[in-house]
Specification:
Layout lengths: L20 E2 L2 E5 L11 H10 L1 H16 L5 H10 L1 H6 E3 L5 E3 L11 H14 L1 H13 L13 E3 L6 E3 L1 H4 L46 H4 L11 H17 L3 H21 L23 E2 H21 L2 H21 L1 E2 L4 E2 L2 E2 L2 E6 L3 E7 L4 H4 L2 E3 L4 H9 L9 H14 L12 E3 L7 H7 L9 H12 L5 H19 L9 E3 L2 E4 L11 H7 L2 E3 L6 E5 L9 E5 L3 E6 L9 E17 L2 E10 L8 E5 L9 E2 L1
Parallel strand pairs: 18-21
Antiparallel strand pairs: 1-2, 3-4, 5-6, 7-10, 8-9, 11-12, 13-14, 15-16, 17-18, 19-20, 20-21, 21-22, 21-23, 23-24
Helix pairs in contact: 2-3, 5-6, 5-9, 6-9, 9-10, 9-11, 10-11, 11-12, 11-14, 14-17, 15-17, 17-18, 17-19
Amino acid sequence: MLKGQTAVITLVLSWYFPHHIWGGQFPNDIGNYYSNLYSSAEHVALSVAANKSRSLQGALNFHRTFMNTDLPTYLQDALINSAGVFWKTSMWLADGKFRMYESHSCDDLQPPHLHFYRAQALQTLLPTLERQIPELYSKLQVKRDNESFPGDVVFVGNSNYTTPGLHGNCSCGRPKGEDFWWNHRVNLTGDQACWWCMAGGIFNSIAHPQKCAAPGCITTDRTDLTAADRVDNTFDFVLDVAMNSRWSEDGRKWAETMWPSVKLALSWLVRSSVKHGLPHDRLNTFDEHGVMGTVNAYNSFAYLGALAAGIELAKDAGDSEAAATATTALARGKEALMKMLWQPAGGFFTSFWCEEVCQYVNYSTVTDCRNTTGDFSESNYALQSSVLYGANWLWLLGIGDSLHSLNSSIASHLRAELAYNLNPSGGGLLYTTNRTTGVHCDTQNGDGRFTDHDLWAMANPTHTSAALWTRAHAAVVEDAMKPTEAMIRLYSQTLNDQWDYHDVAWTSGPRVNSHYARQLNMWAIPLALSGQQLDARDPLGATLSFNRREPSKLRRWPVLTPLMTGIASDTDEGCAGGLSLEVLSGGLTLRELWLDGELLATNVTVGVSSSSAASSQFCSSRPEGLAAGSAY
């Protein structure tokens, strides 16, 4: 260069790690996916340099999707940064398998009870990878009662020991002292299999990598036995299939291939609820508390959600008998929910209901169990936030009408959460568990295992999105957003690290686990604010609708679907007060486009070219009569 000349030089820092060593043994090289795409670090650098403009535009579009909207600033910031958890906790292997760890502290691979908290974000950003997960869970399903599995050693998912025999023969027995809260509850009546051996259950996760010297722990999808009895494992599987079915253009056809496994899962749910109409004596994601009650609210709403989604999937599959069975079970379950879990004086759903109260010695031996007398829910003031997680997914998928009869009670419950479960010293965070009377079915759980006043990250976004869908609060948006705002500010301002959400955290610091992903359920909040619903099952085109909670306060909002992302607005003057869509990625063939109850357009296609990262715009005005879409 001559004196006085200037130039722009692009530097690329690249790396290439084609090997993924499993179990510390070099021969167990399961590889990384990009080894199929690149041959060296130089190859990576050349590719990045050749596509730098497109990559930069794609990143800017991702930011624009959130930042150029009326979402609160703290939520915009949190949503953008939340995507980092995927590359921190996932692996994409050379053979194409995609898996995520539970966290940096719990190294279970792909546990169903946790996956669905991150499923919406993953489905929106990487839908083909997310679809692998319900396909995996279908493989991890018990296909018949007392089914035998290959091998006789289990690498137990959350423990440091192996349990011989249980995986191979699905025995109902448990070694004394292990998982003691199950010891007196392992069998169903009659000749039915015990919980984790009953057909339709989904095993919890793949084994610990450090305890698994063979790559088969991933490639053959072997699993442990810690929780084929978790209600939310089965719920998550059914809802994951429903999400893929509704939000994908080939979803209905794909769901038909999954229907046998979904039907078996629904059978498992119904069989597990014969006695009370709701699942009883079952674990869920709150496993640090053991089994919470004979019947608990988190499992109950998950159960009702799975049944409602299952009815839709059964109808799509043409299985009227399964649809009728699930419909009957759903009606019975809703009645049981109000009978056993509704607290009339407090106006909320209690955390759990006890059929009996048991006494223990040394947290292992049952010495006495007595039946509860009277209406247990009237004396139980245990209030658990986050129990509406299962209901949230029904609203998100557009099948929330199945819970319509419970809406007033659900709204009351949400108001009670703010009244009873706000942590006075936690800056607006909600207690996930709040056992004000100290009641618990099992003495050993109440005294030695149950942790009261937990602050789990999932509770606050669950409250916000549920309150928005149901318009539970007088100040619809402001009050609903308060718990999520408090959670986000805890990490972004007090802990100063919004890239490492912990499962449990206080204002004094994180307490449980590292790099969790439950907070990704905050991705439901933009959809709850805009009332976005997508149904892409119709081969003639998808139906996309928005029904905003407060239209005057949400004039620009993100459109988040697996098929297309962008920004919707009613402020574009060129649309004459109608709706404009700025498409930033993907595209949609729309049979119908709705805004706030008004049909704006039919039979239009919106999208951007796959060869360009530039955006495109679509406008639907509000002329008299039906509005036909027009591009500009």
